[in-house]
UniProtKB/TrEMBL annotation:
This is DNA polymerase III subunit delta'. InterPro entries: DNA_pol3_clamp-load_cplx_C (IPR008921), DNA_pol_HolB (IPR004622), DNA_pol_III_delta_C (IPR015199), DNA_Rep/Repair_Clamp_Loader (IPR050238), HolB_lid-gammaproteobact (IPR048731), P-loop_NTPase (IPR027417). It comes from the Bacteria. Its EC number is 2.7.7.7. It catalyses: DNA(n) + a 2'-deoxyribonucleoside 5'-triphosphate = DNA(n+1) + diphosphate. Coiled coil: none annotated. Residues 167-206 form the DNA polymerase III subunit delta' AAA+ ATPase lid domain. The keyword Kinase does not apply. One of its GO terms (cellular component) is DNA polymerase III complex.
Length: 335
């Protein structure tokens, strides 16, 4: 698994706690997607399972380290939903708890990692509670999550909470420029569109993905003067519609920032003419209304089973057209 420079400090802090005997047996890692919490959890697991620590590093040579590197350590358990399922049910939890109460096969620590703790069903979370409260000796739980509020309060209360924040913007930009060298404005835009998460920004900057975003911006730029918002349907109506709507909402929010004279805080630094055009089409109140409508649409697409995506998008685009046709708003502010 890859390692990232912004993880060095949190890794040292966490390993330092365990080395001093103050580490908690249940760690809740809260991080935005793309900040590398998977690598941090794996690195910490390696250290916990290592039988001959080299300071804050795992030795890489003991039998446990070799098993971890080979990906088949019997005391390292990764719990994820079964293929085709969107939640983690009670049965895998029961099985791993049963395994924990037998002796560690390598005579050392046992580590259980849940990369997406929010996906635990209520029954699975409840089954985990008692073990989290009174775990077997030398047993460690590492739980990663995007939204702690989606976890049972009783589960959160049994864990040591650790927030893995996005790294400093300049550090992230330096790292991004080494991975995908390019226009600094593009790098900054990709980073801001993902709340400063470098790995997510790197994915967005891949040529095909970046071109898809560019196509959406170009289509919006062409549609606005004619109030032909329905022309956006072909660039929105895809399986990844949630991310495409994120791009669209970010542009609309940037237009509100522009109206307030705060263009330097815009996410889409590479699309300022388009942001300005959006800001001149609708008032701040109308922009807020459009953003809310698109967020509601996105929520439905993500959470309503069997929803007709094309129909929902068409309805929202036609509503936007009507709003544009009903207003003659023009903002006097300029860049």
């Amino acid at each position: 698994m890859n390692w990232y420079p912004w993880l060095n400090t949190p890794y040292r802090q966490l390993v330092g706690q365990y080395a001093a005997g103050r580490g908690h047996h249940a760690l809740l890692l809260h991080a935005a997607a793309g900040n590398g919490d998977e690598a941090l959890a794996y690195g910490l697991s390696r250290w916990l399972i290592c039988q001959r620590h080299n300071g804050e590093k795992s030795c890489g040579e003991c039998h446990s380290c070799r098993l971890m590197l080979a990906g088949n350590h019997p005391d390292y358990h990764v719990l994820t939903p079964e293929k085709g399922k969107s939640s983690l049910g009670i049965e895998p939890i029961r099985q791993v708890i049963e395994t924990l109460y037998s002796h560690a096969q390598q005579g050392g620590a046992k580590v259980i990692w849940l990369p997406q703790a929010e996906l635990l069903t209520e029954a699975a979370a409840n089954a985990l509670l008692k073990t989290l409260e009174e775990p077997p000796e030398k047993t460690y739980f590492l739980l990663s999550c995007r939204e702690p509020s989606r976890l049972l309060a009783t589960l959160r209360s049994r864990c040591f909470y650790w927030h893995l924040a996005s790294p400093d913007e300049q550090l992230s930009l330096q790292w991004l420029n080494r991975q995908v060298p390019g226009n600094p404005v593009d790098l900054l835009t990709a980073l801001r569109l993902h709340d400063g998460a470098p790995l997510a920004a790197e994915q967005l900057l891949q040529p095909e993905r970046w071109q898809q975003r560019g196509a959406l911006c170009a289509a919006l730029n062409a549609a606005l003067p004619q109030h032909d918002m329905l022309s956006l349907l072909p660039v929105l109506n895809h399986e990844d519609v949630a991310e495409r709507l994120h791009w669209l909402c970010a542009l609309l929010v940037d237009a509100m920032k522009w109206q307030q004279g705060a263009a330097s805080f815009a996410l889409n630094q590479d699309q300022q003419p388009l942001v300005q055009q959006l800001a001149s089409q609708l008032s701040g109140t109308s922009l807020q209304q459009v953003v809310q409508q698109w967020l509601n649409c996105r929520h439905q697409l993500l959470n309503v089973t069997g929803v007709n995506r094309e129909l929902l998008l068409t309805e929202r685009l036609l509503s936007w057209e009507q709003m544009l046709g009903a207003t003659g708003y023009s903002h006097p502010h300029s860049l």
